[in-house]
Specification:
Number of domains: 2
Number of helices: 9
Helix content: over 70%
Largest sheet: 4 strands, antiparallel
Order of helices and strands: HEHEHHEHEHHHH
Distance between the termini: 26 Å
Structural class: alpha+beta
Strand order of the largest sheet: 2-3-1-4
Number of strands: 4
Radius of gyration: 31 Å
Shape: rod-shaped
């Protein structure tokens, strides 16, 4: 009786260990997936906060400037615009310099400006050349255009590089995670090798022997994925709480995709690992069970 109780405790311990291993593996994969899926969100946020400064000629009247600003707001590739008068520009420069430069010069040399923020799809080097050309050809009130060309090019390069690096690490982590998960499930099935052999000896077919183990493995994968999703949801909640005012990571479509992938991976990886592990013990001869 005591021996049977010890066996049950060992089986429960192996099951719990396997479940925790699946949970940790899926949590790691979920975090990497979260970073990959939100790379686009981060990229869009950075790109859409880069602006074109359209410096207006000094002889242009304010109503004409505002009319041009309204026209710009109608275009799909423009996310938003901001009109800065000469006086506003002077006040901002005074705050940066810490002194009144107008008193020194005797006049305000700054020009009224319209800051234009593009949608992220157009904030890349190829599109920006066409956008700049459009601004210059669309009106004759613009004196010159200022934007951080090198920064835009650097952002696009770094986003592509970061995506490749994340995908590479995700692939490596996936292989390592699968190996760890496979070993854990194999160790769990090792404790049931005599049960498997007994079923073989009484004439049970391989599919009949596999079925309960595969169902158990898939259930473990499903439970482990739910645990991983719960932790990921908590992580996302705190990230969004801290950074929600700046950038919103909590996109329902993205989160739904991520959670679906985690559940699918949990069930699939557990099924594959269990299938190959159970096949090993189905092929094992009775004399080798003790080694």
């Amino acid at each position: 009786m005591k021996e049977r109780s010890n066996i049950k405790n060992k089986i429960r311990g192996a099951y719990f260990t396997s479940l925790i291993s699946i949970f940790l593996v899926l949590l790691l994969l979920g975090i990497i997936g979260l970073l990959i899926l939100n790379t686009k969100v981060l990229s869009e946020y950075v790109k859409e906060n880069l602006s074109f400064s359209l410096m207006i000629k000094n002889n242009v009247k304010e109503p004409d400037i505002k009319q041009y600003q309204k026209m710009l707001d109608t275009y799909d590739f423009i996310k938003s615009t901001e009109y800065i008068t000469k006086e506003d520009a002077a006040d901002m420069l005074k705050q940066e310099l810490g002194e009144d430069f107008i008193e020194t010069l005797g006049y305000n040399p700054l020009s009224p400006t319209i800051n234009v923020y593009l949608r992220s799809d157009y904030a890349n080097p190829d599109s920006i050349v066409n956008v700049e050309k459009f601004f210059l050809e669309s009106t004759n009130i613009i004196d010159k255009i200022s934007y951080q060309q090198n920064l835009i090019h650097q952002i696009n390069t770094n986003v592509k590089r970061a995506s490749v690096i994340l995908l590479f690490f995700c692939g490596i982590l996936f292989i390592i995670s699968f190996a760890l998960l496979n070993n854990t499930i194999r160790l769990m099935l090792y404790s049931k090798r005599f049960t498997i052999n007994t079923m073989k000896l009484v004439g049970a077919k391989k599919n009949f022997i596999r079925s309960p183990f595969l169902r158990s493995g898939m259930l473990q994968g499903f439970i482990g994925s739910l645990m991983a999703i719960a932790v990921l949801a908590v992580i996302m909640y705190f990230i969004n709480k801290e950074m929600g005012e700046i950038i919103n990571f909590f996109d329902y479509k993205t989160m739904g995709t991520l959670f679906a992938i985690v559940i699918l991976l949990g069930i699939l990886l557990s099924f594959i690992s269990t299938y190959f592990s159970i096949n090993k013990y189905l092929k094992l001869k009775t004399v080798n069970l003790y080694y």
